[in-house]
Design brief:
CATH superfamily of chain A: Winged helix-like DNA-binding domain superfamily/Winged helix DNA-binding domain
Radius of gyration of chain A: 17 Å
Helix content of chain A: 40-55%
Number of domains of chain A: 1
Oligomer: homodimer
Distance between the termini of chain A: 27 Å
Order of helices and strands of chain A: HHHEEHHH
CATH topology of chain A: Arc Repressor Mutant, subunit A
CATH class of chain A: Mainly Alpha
Number of strands of chain A: 2
Largest interface: A-B, 56 and 56 residues
Shape of chain A: elongated
Structural class of chain A: mainly alpha
Bound molecules: FE2/S2 (inorganic) cluster
Number of helices of chain A: 6
DNA sequence: TTAAAATAGGATAAAATTATCCGAATTAAA
DNA sequence: TTTAATTCGGATAATTTTATCCTATTTTAA
């Protein structure tokens, strides 16, 4: 049996999104968080999470500070403008919404695969969701206890 | 960079879906198709495709016949009742629509992850699409030249 | 009955993703 | 200035997914 079929996200993205939310939450309180604290909070492997955070830093989604009392943070005033798609793009590169669902070289209206029209709406909805969900709202829901980062 | 983020389907599923469509198309004409012909038509690796076809046979999505003049086929009268979700389920097992988008142990209304409510609708639309698309319509679109299996 | 054409299935290999380890560089406090 | 706490980054390992190879089995036609 050839495992799992419909991933919404890779592990890398899962960790990236959850980490970003936790960093945002902490940044509201004005405190930087360490890799160790993040991995513990989101229940992810430390070293792997580090790689993903480095990616997010390079793409200016989050900031980092080395050394004692260092850690990760996000500029408070930017939290509401960071979208899920920014995080996903940072980890993926781009070419996210462009690929054909059935693996044709390009997704092309004029040369569609059998599921093209059926998938288009699903993909567009996914895209819309990613581009219209920001870190602030996700963080606030964690804060209020309306959602959870682990278990 | 930690590649690709949003898969709709695994390669195994892509090949499984495309192969099924081609087999359906051929079955309407009353001819069995060989693995070789399928792999060529959908532009997939032969041996890997063989494994996936075996899965589909075991799950009674398609039929196979060994020996000279053997190959794969689908009972003509069943083509319209085979849904995309049947193919996907055969290759995946199940547990498809159940998992949490952010990797929590379970997707649970009472203990939702930060993206749960946002994702629910996307996932439901995907599910609806898979359960309401049948092989017949996909095959007919190939036949009419409205869609394509490769390139 | 034999030979050729196919699928079935086990073993293995390659590639991609996920995960770990360790030393280097940086920072702040003591 | 030293030390401890951290992130950074390269190397490597484990796991999963994708792909290949080879032999056995089945089936039909000659
Ligand atoms: S061509 Fe396949 S999804 Fe558009
Ligand atoms: S709990 Fe994460 S998608 Fe439902």
């Amino acid at each position: 049996m050839y495992q799992i079929v419909i991933y919404m996200f890779s592990k890398a993205c899962e960790y990236g999104i959850k980490a970003s939310i936790f960093i945002a939450l902490s940044s509201y309180k004005g405190v930087r968080v360490s890799l160790k604290a993040i991995a513990k909070e989101i229940n992810s492997p430390e070293a792997f999470t580090a790689k993903i955070l480095q990616d997010l830093v390079r793409h200016d989604v989050i900031n980092s500070m080395k050394g004692a009392y260092g850690g990760f943070e996000i500029d408070k005033s930017l939290i509401s403008s960071i979208k899920l798609s920014d995080i996903v793009n940072a980890i993926d590169g781009d070419a996210i919404y462009s690929g054909c669902g059935l693996g044709l070289d390009t997704c092309d209206e004029d040369h569609p695969c059998p599921v093209h029209h059926k998938f288009k709406s699903v993909r567009e909805e996914l895209r819309f969701m990613l581009e219209n969900t920001n870190l602030e709202e996700l963080a606030l829901n964690i804060k209020s206890g309306a959602s959870f980062l682990k278990v």
